[in-house]
Amino acid sequence: MIPNCAHEWELHCHSRFSDGSLSLPELFQLAQQNGVQHLALTDHDTCAGYRHAVDNQLVPEDLTLYPAAELSCIWAKRTLHIVGLGIDAYSEQWLAIEKDYDRRREKRFQRIVYLLQKNGLSVDEAAIRKLAEPGPPARPHIAQYLVDSGQAKNIAAVFKRWLGQGQLGDVKSHWPDLIDAVAAIQQCGGIAVIAHPHRYKLTWTKARELIADFSAAGGRGIEVACIGIHPDMSKFLVAQAQEHDLLVSGGSDFHHLHTQWLKLGTYPMWPNHVTSVKEWLLQRDVALAR
Protein backbone atom coordinates (compact mmCIF):
# COMPACT_ATOMS: atom_id res chain seq x y z
CA MET A 1 0.00 0.00 0.00
CA ILE A 2 1.04 3.62 -0.50
CA PRO A 3 2.21 5.41 2.68
CA ASN A 4 -0.05 8.12 4.11
CA CYS A 5 0.98 11.64 5.07
CA ALA A 6 -0.66 14.72 6.58
CA HIS A 7 -2.31 17.24 4.22
CA GLU A 8 -3.66 20.77 4.45
CA TRP A 9 -6.55 19.70 2.18
CA GLU A 10 -9.22 17.18 3.25
CA LEU A 11 -11.80 16.60 0.52
CA HIS A 12 -13.65 13.53 1.79
CA CYS A 13 -14.98 13.29 5.36
CA HIS A 14 -18.21 12.84 7.30
CA SER A 15 -19.99 14.25 10.35
CA ARG A 16 -23.05 13.40 12.42
CA PHE A 17 -25.16 14.88 9.63
CA SER A 18 -24.72 11.48 7.95
CA ASP A 19 -22.84 8.45 9.30
CA GLY A 20 -19.90 10.17 10.99
CA SER A 21 -19.59 10.22 14.78
CA LEU A 22 -18.30 13.77 15.37
CA SER A 23 -20.33 16.94 15.70
CA LEU A 24 -19.33 19.85 13.49
CA PRO A 25 -17.41 21.70 16.26
CA GLU A 26 -15.57 18.46 17.09
CA LEU A 27 -14.75 17.82 13.43
CA PHE A 28 -13.49 21.36 12.88
CA GLN A 29 -11.39 21.22 16.04
CA LEU A 30 -9.83 17.95 14.90
CA ALA A 31 -9.12 19.48 11.48
CA GLN A 32 -7.26 22.35 13.14
CA GLN A 33 -5.30 19.97 15.36
CA ASN A 34 -4.28 17.94 12.30
CA GLY A 35 -3.20 20.97 10.27
CA VAL A 36 -6.10 20.88 7.80
CA GLN A 37 -6.80 24.31 6.28
CA HIS A 38 -9.25 23.38 3.51
CA LEU A 39 -12.09 20.95 4.21
CA ALA A 40 -14.98 19.61 2.12
CA LEU A 41 -17.73 18.11 4.26
CA THR A 42 -18.96 15.23 2.09
CA ASP A 43 -21.83 13.83 4.14
CA HIS A 44 -23.95 11.26 2.34
CA ASP A 45 -26.57 12.81 0.05
CA THR A 46 -26.79 16.11 1.95
CA CYS A 47 -25.20 19.52 2.49
CA ALA A 48 -27.23 20.07 5.68
CA GLY A 49 -24.07 20.07 7.80
CA TYR A 50 -22.47 22.73 5.62
CA ARG A 51 -25.55 24.97 5.90
CA HIS A 52 -25.72 24.47 9.66
CA ALA A 53 -22.04 25.37 10.05
CA VAL A 54 -22.35 28.51 7.94
CA ASP A 55 -25.69 29.67 9.36
CA ASN A 56 -24.45 29.27 12.94
CA GLN A 57 -20.96 30.67 12.30
CA LEU A 58 -19.25 27.47 13.44
CA VAL A 59 -16.41 27.51 10.89
CA PRO A 60 -13.08 28.66 12.42
CA GLU A 61 -11.42 31.64 10.75
CA ASP A 62 -8.38 29.60 9.74
CA LEU A 63 -10.43 26.87 8.05
CA THR A 64 -12.00 27.09 4.60
CA LEU A 65 -15.14 24.95 4.38
CA TYR A 66 -16.44 23.86 0.97
CA PRO A 67 -20.03 22.77 0.23
CA ALA A 68 -20.03 19.14 -0.84
CA ALA A 69 -21.90 15.84 -0.65
CA GLU A 70 -21.32 12.18 -1.46
CA LEU A 71 -24.18 10.96 -3.64
CA SER A 72 -25.17 7.33 -4.03
CA CYS A 73 -25.97 6.16 -7.57
CA ILE A 74 -26.22 3.07 -9.76
CA TRP A 75 -23.92 2.09 -12.61
CA ALA A 76 -24.06 -1.34 -14.27
CA LYS A 77 -26.23 -2.62 -11.41
CA ARG A 78 -23.59 -1.54 -8.87
CA THR A 79 -23.94 1.06 -6.14
CA LEU A 80 -21.28 3.75 -6.50
CA HIS A 81 -20.54 7.00 -4.71
CA ILE A 82 -19.96 10.30 -6.48
CA VAL A 83 -18.61 13.26 -4.53
CA GLY A 84 -19.97 16.64 -5.53
CA LEU A 85 -17.63 19.53 -4.72
CA GLY A 86 -18.54 23.22 -4.79
CA ILE A 87 -22.31 22.67 -4.83
CA ASP A 88 -24.72 25.58 -4.38
CA ALA A 89 -26.01 24.14 -1.11
CA TYR A 90 -28.75 26.76 -0.68
CA SER A 91 -30.33 26.58 -4.14
CA GLU A 92 -33.90 25.36 -4.49
CA GLN A 93 -32.70 22.81 -7.02
CA TRP A 94 -30.20 21.28 -4.61
CA LEU A 95 -32.68 21.27 -1.72
CA ALA A 96 -35.09 19.34 -3.96
CA ILE A 97 -32.34 16.80 -4.71
CA GLU A 98 -31.69 16.36 -1.00
CA LYS A 99 -35.41 15.86 -0.38
CA ASP A 100 -35.51 13.11 -3.00
CA TYR A 101 -32.54 11.33 -1.40
CA ASP A 102 -34.15 11.69 2.05
CA ARG A 103 -37.24 9.95 0.72
CA ARG A 104 -35.17 7.11 -0.73
CA ARG A 105 -33.19 6.67 2.50
CA GLU A 106 -36.32 6.70 4.67
CA LYS A 107 -37.92 4.00 2.53
CA ARG A 108 -34.79 1.87 2.88
CA PHE A 109 -34.65 2.41 6.65
CA GLN A 110 -38.26 1.36 7.09
CA ARG A 111 -37.67 -1.81 5.07
CA ILE A 112 -34.61 -2.78 7.11
CA VAL A 113 -36.48 -2.25 10.39
CA TYR A 114 -39.35 -4.39 9.14
CA LEU A 115 -37.06 -7.25 8.09
CA LEU A 116 -35.12 -7.24 11.36
CA GLN A 117 -38.31 -7.24 13.42
CA LYS A 118 -39.73 -10.05 11.30
CA ASN A 119 -36.55 -12.00 12.02
CA GLY A 120 -37.19 -11.74 15.76
CA LEU A 121 -35.04 -8.76 16.73
CA SER A 122 -36.36 -6.04 19.01
CA VAL A 123 -35.99 -2.76 17.10
CA ASP A 124 -36.97 0.58 18.63
CA GLU A 125 -37.30 2.93 15.66
CA ALA A 126 -37.49 6.06 17.83
CA ALA A 127 -34.31 5.12 19.68
CA ILE A 128 -32.43 4.63 16.39
CA ARG A 129 -33.62 8.00 15.11
CA LYS A 130 -32.35 9.56 18.33
CA LEU A 131 -28.94 7.97 17.80
CA ALA A 132 -28.84 9.35 14.25
CA GLU A 133 -29.63 12.98 15.09
CA PRO A 134 -29.12 15.40 13.46
CA GLY A 135 -28.79 13.16 10.40
CA PRO A 136 -31.11 10.52 8.95
CA PRO A 137 -31.07 6.97 10.36
CA ALA A 138 -28.87 4.51 8.49
CA ARG A 139 -27.35 1.06 8.92
CA PRO A 140 -24.53 2.21 11.27
CA HIS A 141 -27.14 3.66 13.64
CA ILE A 142 -29.18 0.44 13.53
CA ALA A 143 -26.01 -1.51 14.28
CA GLN A 144 -25.16 0.76 17.22
CA TYR A 145 -28.67 0.33 18.61
CA LEU A 146 -28.44 -3.47 18.44
CA VAL A 147 -25.14 -3.34 20.33
CA ASP A 148 -26.43 -0.86 22.92
CA SER A 149 -29.56 -2.96 23.50
CA GLY A 150 -27.50 -6.10 24.13
CA GLN A 151 -28.62 -7.93 21.00
CA ALA A 152 -25.14 -8.02 19.48
CA LYS A 153 -21.57 -8.06 20.76
CA ASN A 154 -20.23 -5.32 18.51
CA ILE A 155 -20.96 -3.43 15.31
CA ALA A 156 -18.81 -5.76 13.21
CA ALA A 157 -20.92 -8.69 14.39
CA VAL A 158 -24.12 -6.87 13.40
CA PHE A 159 -22.93 -6.31 9.87
CA LYS A 160 -21.59 -9.85 9.57
CA ARG A 161 -24.89 -11.41 10.65
CA TRP A 162 -27.62 -8.98 9.63
CA LEU A 163 -26.62 -5.80 7.79
CA GLY A 164 -23.62 -6.66 5.64
CA GLN A 165 -23.57 -7.51 1.95
CA GLY A 166 -25.88 -10.40 1.15
CA GLN A 167 -27.43 -10.45 4.63
CA LEU A 168 -31.02 -9.87 5.73
CA GLY A 169 -30.69 -6.12 6.15
CA ASP A 170 -28.73 -5.53 2.95
CA VAL A 171 -31.63 -3.68 1.36
CA LYS A 172 -30.79 -2.21 -2.02
CA SER A 173 -32.05 1.33 -2.46
CA HIS A 174 -33.34 2.58 -5.77
CA TRP A 175 -30.67 5.21 -6.18
CA PRO A 176 -30.51 7.48 -9.26
CA ASP A 177 -28.42 6.40 -12.22
CA LEU A 178 -24.83 7.62 -12.53
CA ILE A 179 -25.83 10.00 -15.32
CA ASP A 180 -28.53 11.60 -13.16
CA ALA A 181 -26.24 11.95 -10.13
CA VAL A 182 -23.56 13.68 -12.20
CA ALA A 183 -26.18 15.96 -13.79
CA ALA A 184 -27.58 16.90 -10.36
CA ILE A 185 -24.15 18.01 -9.18
CA GLN A 186 -23.44 19.94 -12.38
CA GLN A 187 -26.80 21.70 -12.36
CA CYS A 188 -26.07 22.95 -8.85
CA GLY A 189 -22.72 24.46 -9.78
CA GLY A 190 -20.46 21.66 -8.58
CA ILE A 191 -18.08 19.17 -10.11
CA ALA A 192 -18.60 15.42 -9.88
CA VAL A 193 -15.77 13.19 -8.62
CA ILE A 194 -15.72 9.38 -8.48
CA ALA A 195 -15.24 8.44 -4.82
CA HIS A 196 -12.72 5.75 -3.74
CA PRO A 197 -12.79 3.81 -7.07
CA HIS A 198 -10.42 1.16 -5.70
CA ARG A 199 -13.15 -0.15 -3.37
CA TYR A 200 -15.55 -1.27 -6.08
CA LYS A 201 -13.54 -4.40 -6.91
CA LEU A 202 -13.75 -3.80 -10.64
CA THR A 203 -11.62 -5.52 -13.24
CA TRP A 204 -9.33 -3.26 -15.23
CA THR A 205 -11.78 -3.45 -18.13
CA LYS A 206 -14.78 -2.56 -15.99
CA ALA A 207 -12.88 0.27 -14.35
CA ARG A 208 -12.09 1.70 -17.79
CA GLU A 209 -15.77 1.40 -18.74
CA LEU A 210 -16.85 3.19 -15.57
CA ILE A 211 -14.43 6.06 -16.05
CA ALA A 212 -15.35 6.40 -19.73
CA ASP A 213 -19.09 6.46 -18.92
CA PHE A 214 -18.52 8.90 -16.06
CA SER A 215 -16.49 11.24 -18.27
CA ALA A 216 -19.08 11.05 -21.06
CA ALA A 217 -21.78 11.99 -18.52
CA GLY A 218 -19.89 15.16 -17.62
CA GLY A 219 -17.89 13.90 -14.65
CA ARG A 220 -14.87 16.04 -13.89
CA GLY A 221 -12.69 14.27 -11.35
CA ILE A 222 -11.58 11.03 -9.70
CA GLU A 223 -10.14 10.23 -6.29
CA VAL A 224 -6.64 8.79 -6.62
CA ALA A 225 -5.13 9.74 -3.23
CA CYS A 226 -7.09 7.25 -1.11
CA ILE A 227 -6.18 5.28 1.99
CA GLY A 228 -5.50 1.63 1.24
CA ILE A 229 -5.06 2.03 -2.50
CA HIS A 230 -2.55 -0.26 -4.22
CA PRO A 231 0.28 1.49 -6.12
CA ASP A 232 -0.72 -0.22 -9.37
CA MET A 233 -4.30 1.00 -9.01
CA SER A 234 -3.10 4.52 -8.22
CA LYS A 235 -0.95 4.59 -11.37
CA PHE A 236 -3.84 3.22 -13.42
CA LEU A 237 -6.26 5.88 -12.12
CA VAL A 238 -3.81 8.71 -12.74
CA ALA A 239 -3.30 7.47 -16.32
CA GLN A 240 -7.08 7.29 -16.78
CA ALA A 241 -7.44 10.81 -15.42
CA GLN A 242 -4.93 12.06 -17.97
CA GLU A 243 -6.62 10.15 -20.80
CA HIS A 244 -10.07 11.56 -19.99
CA ASP A 245 -8.89 15.02 -18.87
CA LEU A 246 -10.14 14.50 -15.32
CA LEU A 247 -9.01 16.36 -12.22
CA VAL A 248 -7.55 14.23 -9.43
CA SER A 249 -8.81 14.34 -5.87
CA GLY A 250 -8.30 12.59 -2.56
CA GLY A 251 -9.10 12.43 1.12
CA SER A 252 -9.27 10.20 4.15
CA ASP A 253 -13.00 9.36 4.10
CA PHE A 254 -12.89 10.01 7.85
CA HIS A 255 -15.92 8.88 9.90
CA HIS A 256 -14.83 7.98 13.44
CA LEU A 257 -12.05 8.50 15.95
CA HIS A 258 -11.97 4.80 16.86
CA THR A 259 -10.47 3.86 13.49
CA GLN A 260 -6.91 4.55 14.63
CA TRP A 261 -5.42 3.64 11.25
CA LEU A 262 -7.49 6.40 9.60
CA LYS A 263 -6.94 10.03 10.55
CA LEU A 264 -8.59 13.20 9.29
CA GLY A 265 -6.35 14.89 6.73
CA THR A 266 -3.98 11.92 6.43
CA TYR A 267 -3.87 9.92 3.20
CA PRO A 268 -1.43 9.22 0.30
CA MET A 269 0.41 11.99 -1.54
CA TRP A 270 -1.26 13.80 -4.41
CA PRO A 271 0.30 13.09 -7.83
CA ASN A 272 2.22 16.22 -8.80
CA HIS A 273 2.05 15.89 -12.59
CA VAL A 274 -1.74 16.17 -13.05
CA THR A 275 -4.21 18.96 -12.29
CA SER A 276 -6.17 18.54 -9.07
CA VAL A 277 -9.61 19.62 -7.88
CA LYS A 278 -7.80 21.94 -5.46
CA GLU A 279 -7.09 24.30 -8.34
CA TRP A 280 -10.77 24.23 -9.37
CA LEU A 281 -11.91 25.04 -5.83
CA LEU A 282 -9.44 27.89 -5.50
CA GLN A 283 -10.58 29.37 -8.82
CA ARG A 284 -14.19 29.01 -7.61
CA ASP A 285 -13.32 31.01 -4.49
CA VAL A 286 -11.80 33.77 -6.60
CA ALA A 287 -14.86 33.89 -8.86
CA LEU A 288 -17.25 34.06 -5.90
CA ALA A 289 -15.23 36.87 -4.32
CA ARG A 290 -15.59 39.13 -7.36
UniProtKB/TrEMBL annotation:
Molecular function per GO: 5'-3' DNA exonuclease activity; 5'-3' RNA exonuclease activity
Protein name: PHP domain-containing protein
Domain Polymerase/histidinol phosphatase N-terminal: 9-75
Species per Swiss-Prot/TrEMBL record: Reinekea thalattae
CDD domains: PHP_HisPPase_AMP (cd07438)
SUPFAM superfamilies: PHP domain-like (SSF89550)
Name of a matching Pfam family: PHP
Cross-referenced InterPro entries: PHP_dom (IPR004013), PHP_domain (IPR052018), Pol/His_phosphatase_N (IPR003141), Pol/histidinol_Pase-like (IPR016195)
